[in-house]
Amino acid sequence: MSNAIEGLKPVLVWKYFAEVAKIPRCSKYEGAIVKYVIETAKKLGLEAKSDKFGNVVVRKPAFPGREHVGSIVLQGHLDMVCEKNNDKVHDFSKDPIELVRKDNIIMANGTTLGADNGIAVATNLAIMEDRSLQHGPLEFLFTVDEETGLTGASNLASDFLTSRTLLNLDSEEEGHLYVGCSGGRNTLASWKLATDPAGAGLVPAELKVAGLKGGHSGLEIDKNRGNSIKIITRVLQPLSLLGVRLASIAGGNKHNAIPREATAIVYIPKKAWGNAAKTVTACEEIVKAELGKVDPDLSITLIEKKGTKRGKVIKKALQKKILQTISALPHGVIKMSSEIPGLVETSTNVATITTTKKAVEMATSQRSSVASENADICQTVWMIFELGGANVNHSDGYPGWKPNLDSPVLALAKNTYQALYHKFPEVKAIHAGLECGIIGERFPDMDMLSFGPTLESVHSPDEKIFIDTVDTYWQFLLGILKNAK
């Protein structure tokens, strides 16, 4: 057992959480965790099957005397966002996540923790094992590829589940019940690379933005955290006026994460080096002052790359188009909900940029709980890219989940929580894509609810789960299962 979880309760949940952390499970590479879940189910004498996409369903019979209760499915996704700090040596294809305990939190050492959604996987495995729990017939649904395309849920066959009540265990604020989520779509763009040889008298250098918190592009989009791609472009604009030429630019790793770091390789006229360095310092001071306590560890550095073989730079006209386009792109909250206080209704995230041998490529993500608003912000981003001369296309997207405040399982959950903790939970919608939206399309009569323990900074190496909320969430879930009719 990992020392980080020693003595933590509920014991079975933390045991399985530590086991799951040992298994590589980046999105689209969930083979090992699929095998583990199926083998665990079979060892426990439970029925388990997988479809051709990798989704797994396990069935557990009712506790004696509870056979009359309607079947409930407990659902979570197997994959995790695989992010690490630049200085962290870690191979997500084989290295286990190293758990670290700090007071009331569990984190990872320099990588994402995978509590999103490893806590659901661990919860399901714990309930599968514990024969003393009182519940009706249960199904456990483990989906794949939630983080990069929701393709597991999208490909569920209509006969894969028999339950018509679903508890999604992929929310991140204990004491909150989620009854709706946003839909989303990505807008992608690329510019065909056109270059010139780097001229004599130019000094190669690396411009770097680092130290930002980043985070989930839905859940943390309203926290006004810095976006490394927007910031580095803001620095490159005045540098361009000094004759600085851009060779490459890269930033961000995931479409659903606010980018934390960005790097540009630039060539600076020797005579302009001093002014370039002063410009970078001035920009750092300005942006740090703007971000204040939100992102206090921001750093913007310019370092000469001595001994670098002279390469190529992006043509001036193309460089101008790219930087102007990124500057024009909106990032952050577009509209707050007028119906649910504190809910972001529509947002957009400038997510990634890369420079290949043939192109400069960008990905952005748009979210909204209102389909027409999501279409509108997608069109806005498309038009900006098109005006900037980029080739543009959209991803397929995913649907939202419309709240049903008359939901039977919501009423059951509210009453259960109030009986346990003498207060009612907060009922909310979430500005993120939950698989409930897709599952609701696949199973139109499914009554759904989403909840979980408290997590913070998911999709970043600062991801953490709060220990005390896990037992609270666990007792609440068991209460729902026990009280179901």
Structural write-up:
With 485 residues, the chain is of the alpha+beta class. The protein has 11 helices and 25 strands. The chain has helices spanning 11-21, 31-43, 115-129, 151-154, 228-241, 273-291, 316-328, 371-387, 408-421, 435-442, 467-483, and strands at residues 47-50, 56-60, 72-77, 99-102, 105-108, 138-143, 165-168, 176-181, 183-192, 195-197, 202-210, 215-216, 245-251, 257-258, 262-269, 299-304, 312-314, 332-336, 344-355, 359-368, 391-394, 426-430, 447-450, 455-456, 464-466. It has a 6-stranded mixed sheet, with helices on both faces. Helix 1 (11-21) packs across helix 3 and helix 5 (228-241) packs across helix 7 (316-328). The longest helix has 19 residues, at 273-291. It is elongated. It starts with 10 loop residues before the first helix and ends with a helix. 49% of the residues are buried.
Helix-strand layout with pairing:
Layout: H1 11-21, H2 31-43, E1 47-50, E2 56-60, E3 72-77, E4 99-102, E5 105-108, H3 115-129, E6 138-143, H4 151-154, E7 165-168, E8 176-181, E9 183-192, E10 195-197, E11 202-210, E12 215-216, H5 228-241, E13 245-251, E14 257-258, E15 262-269, H6 273-291, E16 299-304, E17 312-314, H7 316-328, E18 332-336, E19 344-355, E20 359-368, H8 371-387, E21 391-394, H9 408-421, E22 426-430, H10 435-442, E23 447-450, E24 455-456, E25 464-466, H11 467-483
Helix pairs in contact: 1-3, 5-6, 5-7, 9-11
